[in-house]
């Protein structure tokens, strides 16, 4: 029992690592969740048949032990996980079609798109230049997309691109704040803290070389 609990936890930890990261979009998270739900279905089918190919310690136990492996206990754990994932991510499942549309508008079924997007999606799918630009990445593609030609598609995509799929960024900010706000700082007000956190978490690189090159004289003569 402990061997199976440890190994199913290892699979969950692997999923958790995939869900972390500041560059993950909600569409990426949905892909990983769908894949794990499919894995659970495979695990259940195989464990019921006493097949432990994806649980190596359990496989060793069944090969060496004389006692029967508690298959029913393992199946109950998997079924409970399936129920938990179904309940916790039901809201995301209800938006699955929209997530897929945002993820790849060129493969979308126009008839299943929201009415206000259908004509723009048809124009989008007929544009070979935009299809080539789609290869640069999802965020870059929607940034390149002309707003005057595709206002509804851009508005629709911005809603899904701006969703925080996990609390990773919040946790990272709090971790940075532990170093910024410490007992050696006695005059740290909210405005200072906000500014320092923005500097500590931003991906923007300061153009120091360009700023220095634009200065003819660094120190004024007295």
UniProtKB/TrEMBL annotation:
Top-rank taxon: Eukaryota
Protein name: General transcription factor II-I repeat domain-containing protein 2
Organism per entry: Sinanodonta woodiana (Chinese pond mussel)
């Amino acid at each position: 029992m402990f061997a199976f609990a440890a190994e199913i936890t290892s699979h969950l930890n692997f999923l958790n690592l995939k869900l972390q990261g500041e560059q993950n979009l909600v569409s990426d998270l949905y892909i990983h969740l769908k894949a794990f739900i499919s894995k659970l279905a495979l695990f259940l089918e195989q464990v019921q048949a006493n097949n432990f190919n994806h649980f190596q310690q359990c496989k060793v136990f069944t090969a060496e032990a004389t006692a029967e492996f508690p298959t029913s206990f393992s199946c109950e754990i998997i079924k409970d996980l399936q129920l938990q994932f179904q309940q916790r991510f039901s809201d995301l499942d209800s938006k699955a079609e929209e997530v897929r549309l945002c993820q790849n508008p060129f493969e979308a079924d126009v008839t299943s798109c929201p009415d206000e997007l259908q004509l723009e999606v048809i124009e989008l799918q007929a544009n070979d230049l935009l299809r080539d630009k789609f290869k640069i990445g999802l965020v870059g593609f929607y940034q390149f997309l002309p707003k005057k030609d595709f206002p509804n598609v851009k508005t629709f995509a911005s809603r899904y691109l701006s969703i925080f799929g996990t609390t990773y960024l919040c946790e990272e900010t709090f971790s940075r704040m532990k170093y910024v706000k410490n007992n050696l700082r006695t005059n740290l007000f909210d405005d200072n803290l906000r500014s320092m956190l923005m500097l500590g978490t931003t991906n923007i690189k300061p153009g120091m070389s360009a700023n220095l090159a634009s200065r003819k004289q660094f120190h004024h003569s007295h």
